[in-house]
Amino acid sequence: MQELQFTAAESRLSAANSRIKSKSLLRVMCLALGGAALLIATSAHTQNLFVAAGANILEITPSGLESSFAAFPGSARELAFNSSGDLFVVDGGDNIYEFRPSGMQSIFASAPAGAVELAFNSSGDLFVGSQGGAIYELTPGGTENIFTTAVNIPQGLAFNGAGDLFEADDSGNIYQFTPSGVRTTFASGLSGVTGLAFNSSGNLFVADNASDSIYEYTPGGMKSTFASGLGNPTGLNFNSAGDLLVSDAGSVAIYEFTPDGTRSLVATLPQYPYGLAFQPTPEPSQSWLILLGSGVWFYARYTHKNHRLA
Q1: pTM
Q2: Exposed/middle/buried for residue 272 (C-beta within 10 Å: 0-12, 13-18, 19+)
Q3: Residue 35 — pLDDT band, cuts 50, 70, 90?
Q4: pLDDT at residue 133 above 90?
Q5: Range of the domain at 9
């Protein structure tokens, strides 16, 4: 057995690997002439949507198939996945719950004065908005620190690509915090924010249940109405294709919006939905082209699972 190591192939593999997160699909074609072989290897990975819906956490496939992922001891409000695929859930009470991919539940940490919002930064630290007027930062090991007390009651948390934390406040403002905790006002004049999410271009999307609308803000703060006519939007999240998923408590449904604003129904639910979170998809951490006899093989080692493509 010999490893094929040549710059052009490695470049193509690197480009293919970088597309996995956004396309959820790997297609590798390797052609070697004169005694080698043509290989086409394909592996598809889907992103399932998880929904906080009362005493249940629901799981919805891209095709719209609904199932119950886990029962919840309270009334689930917000969800967030870490990079390992563990799901974290809060309900406004004093505990932060962690669910393994198998559905096994444990209490990750206690949250003073009631946890209502969640968001992970790129380092894997969990940020928790508290009804007591603070945002806490918890390390993966559960060590808790106060990130800021310069808030009222958080109504939404989201990180932009630069690592700044955006917090929608019941004061009607959206605040921007640098990683060191310095606060500036990003937007004001809102009255019913219930969710925040960034798209891949860095625009901030805001669910506002007072106007039953979704607003879009450019990085410079310019506001426009992305969608209106909803029944009570309560949660936002983007899938890997760039479509916006919205939980709507008024119609007890999940809607999907394409980047141009076209709306379609994803699912109707048995209970009022609130927070949304997409299950992370694995990325290859290592990949090789290997020559086995007269055949060329591609091997990719994934973060969550190992896959051998042939």
Answers
A1: 0.79
A2: middle
A3: very low
A4: yes
A5: 2-45+285-309
Would strands 306-309 and 87-90 be described as parallel, antiparallel, or unpaired? unpaired
pLDDT of residue 42 exceeding 90, the answer is no
Cα(280)–Cα(294) distance, rounded to whole angstroms?
36
> Is the same domain home to 120 and 217?
yes
161 phi, psi to nearest 5 deg: -70, -20
CATH of the domain at 82: 2.120.10.30
Segment 213-225, tens digit of pLDDT? 999 999 999 999 9
Number of structural domains, the chain? 2
Tokens 């086409």, located at residue: 40
Q: What's the rounded Cα separation, in Å, for the pair 33 and 152? A: 66
Name the strand (E) or helix (H) holding 233: strand 233-238
- The helix/strand/coil state of 7 is helix
- Count the Cβ atoms, other than its own, within 10 Å of residue 16: 20
**pLDDT at position 111, please?**
74
- Strands (E) across 77-228 are located at 78-81, 87-90, 95-99, 105-110, 115-120, 126-130, 134-138, 144-148, 154-159, 165-169, 174-177, 183-187, 193-198, 204-208, 213-217, 223-227
On the CB side of 293, how many CA atoms lie within 13 Å of its CA? 1
3-state secondary structure of 105: strand
| Nearest by Cα to 149 from 169, 164, 163 | 169
Answer yes or no: are the C-beta atoms of 88 and 77 closer than 8 Å: no
